[in-house]
Amino acid sequence: MPEKTKDSDDGANNEVTENEVLNRDTESNTGDDGANNEVTENEVLKREIEFLKDELEKEKDLSEKNLSKLRYLMADFDNYRKQMQKQMESKIEENRGQLFMKILKIYDDCLLALETLKNGQYDSTVVGGIQGIMTNFEGFMKDEGLVEIMNWLQITQ
Prior knowledge:
mainly alpha
């Protein structure tokens, strides 16, 4: 019967190989006394134990490699998640800045309208109403962290 290798990936082939070894060893010693037969069985068991130890070591190595790969994948995913979060935050800030630019244009138009109303002789309730709107605009911008640069330049000079 041809001998099969121990490195085979098929578990059945490994089992057949061990059985063949057991059969050969017992066939070669059938005519001997019981002591030799017992020694042969011990040798076969030792070989089987060594074979199983080798297989266990291979499986441990494979397990360690897979665990290492998993750790690298987890780290890569964590880095990817952080990168995506930074990109999202950056995009939000960019969009927020564009929105504030549009709001500031409306604010400037309101300021111009208020100055025009103050210079013309209009009803004080209209001027007061627009001043209230401007106060709300200013409070909104202050809450969002916007400051008027001209006031800052005047304060620092």
